[in-house]
Amino acid sequence: ISFSEDDIELQDEIGGGVSGTVYIVEHRTSKLKMAAKKMRWKPHQEEQKRILMDLEIMSIQKSPFIVFYYGSLVVNDNVWLYMELMDTCLDKVLKRHGPLPEQIVANVVIATLNALHYLKSVHDIIHRDVKPSNILINKKGNIKICDFGISKQLVESCVETRGAGPIAYISPERLDIDMKEYDVRADVWSLGISVIELLTGKLPYSHCKSDIEVMTRIVQEPPPRLPEILSVSQECKRFIELCLTKDYTKRPKYQVLLETSEFVKRYMAVQVPVAEWFASLTK
Ligand code: ADP
Ligand code: MG
Description:
39% of the residues lie in helices and 16% in strands. The chain has helices at 45-60, 90-97, 102-123, 152-157, 185-200, 211-220, 234-243, 254-260, 262-268, 274-281, and strands at 8-16, 21-27, 33-40, 69-75, 78-84, 88-89, 135-137, 143-145. It starts with 7 loop residues before the first strand and ends with a helix. It binds adenosine-5'-diphosphate (ADP) and magnesium ion.
């Protein structure tokens, strides 16, 4: 669909994070409800052109594991990104209902790996912000990711990017000041951390007193593991170990994980009732 500012009715606020605020909006004529992310930005003319070109890329992406992107509008000092409205994000599920069962986490892993692999291999995009609040779910049981890179330039040219998001998801190599470039494997690490959080309800390093302490531990300590007492399969533990390989040059990329991980293979072979599980939460 194509639309202008006047075609859109602003409804409720859903939430806000580091980069902007998300609202429910409705397209007046079609009654289509969308999620709209508002970000403040003041780019230069040239930069604006480049960013809008990057946003074009988002509009051609097609994957069942990525939220559909309807388009964007620049209004005054704000850029609005319009996307498919999902029911909630996994961060909120976790906070309201506690840890997720292994089979649901497995489905999250499969969706996320597919989405990230698609973005990289087809569009050469690195997500850079993998965490439960960027993994969305709906009543149909679809699991989809959002907020991929929203292009690095867009985020950097936003007036209000309040520093970085939570530190705990960041891989050791991203904290190495001598490393100028990092690759998709940084997101593999973040996925491993997210899996621990989804299974336990807690982020590793949640006991730390400051961001500096978190960063120091990420760099200096062995990678986080699940608590021994938690009953999850060996395959699942092994998957986390693989994602949290400290030396990123030895950490597997998406395709290897999708094709060789026993955890992934085991749950790809069965139909996990995600929709039923989601419905049971809201009862
Ligand atoms: P963050 O991801 O850092 O928490 P965001 O500004 O990206 O902050 O998102 C804020 C909240 O809006 C998220 O926690 C999520 O629950 C919600 N949200 C974002 N995009 C959508 C969407 N497409 N559909 C439904 N809810 C969304
Ligand atoms: Mg987000």
